[in-house]
């Protein structure tokens, strides 16, 4: 590669990174706005989420196209190739987080248009804060090539799963006590489920960051082995 | 590339294709077996699904590793690169179909262990047949580089969405009429939701097959434009 090509390639890699971070920032905002719409009933936010969704879709396609071109033209190897392949996978998860945020926003509209008396859904706010933090953490870990920080996201997903199960139990109890709330509670269950899925996607992205940094595939290895690999240790070391 | 390297590369590409088809075959079986367990209560199938899930995970990691090596070593371009990038994305969707099948199998166990009297859930069987056919179609389309066939999967996903919404309405009515069925019905709603997601993943994979064949990204373009692109026409042609 000539020095010129090399410089241009580095610039293109940086652009790929920064575009993905931009896309991630939009998705983070979408989740927050969708939940804000749900809690406050401010339905202008629903339109905002839907607008952002179009930007996210556009970025997904653009970034993927650039990745294909960069691999074809510049024939990257090792860490550069891992960056590009990782972003290509993370794009999919990020876009689906955006889809889930859009579903939440639509559900918020339906719930608020259907009735004035409304469940404040405090518990969901809690899961929501949790998964928004996970998206932010995975973006930070990606921006700083920080595998250890990425591993915390993998661990946090376990917490979100617990919170989701607790919210589900609570909503089922609520429906049983007052069957008139069934329809509304089902909507809330789907919102909780969407949040849980966003946590899952954040975990998937975190696993890709670890792959990007170390070249090890930590999908299906369990949290403890993931944390060891993220620290650069052997996955089979005895726990300290 | 020397003739030898070239031959070896072609063989590796074929192996990548056939491994993905093998993985797809496992996932197709998992969905069928999970639903069979649900409908018949034959819980040995649940263990079978969980075993297959491990094979699917192993294949996911192996195929992805081979793709990374092939891109780094052989620096493929054009259609070969599109094949590898497409399979890399499809792997994720396929593995998640397997996850959904495993969730269904676990739910089947819980439902059958909890009570003897049981809802036959005929409607779910219908959605299930539909999404299994979609997985099979997308594998066929992939094996034969058939973009037009892939586009039928994208269209079929609309049908699955309708069936899912109908099943949901039915189950909500059921709960309202007899609140004692709430807990069980929620489980069935999640099974229906898993099936709907499998349909979604099949659609995503079908879009990747079209990209592989034509090099056009049809995510977010709508069904009609997708069908035109799959036929090799301009996306903006007037409908015949």
UniProtKB/TrEMBL annotation, chains A, B:
Keywords: Cytoplasm, Phosphate transport, Transport. Residues 21-107, 124-209 form the PhoU domain. GO terms for biological process: intracellular phosphate ion homeostasis; negative regulation of phosphate metabolic process; phosphate ion transport. NCBIfam families: phoU_full. One of its GO terms (cellular component) is cytoplasm. InterPro entries: PhoU, PhoU-like_sf, PhoU_dom. The keyword Cytoplasm applies. Belongs to the PhoU family. It comes from Pusillimonas minor. The keyword Transport applies. It is found in: Cytoplasm. This is Phosphate-specific transport system accessory protein PhoU. The gene is phoU. Homodimer. Plays a role in the regulation of phosphate uptake.
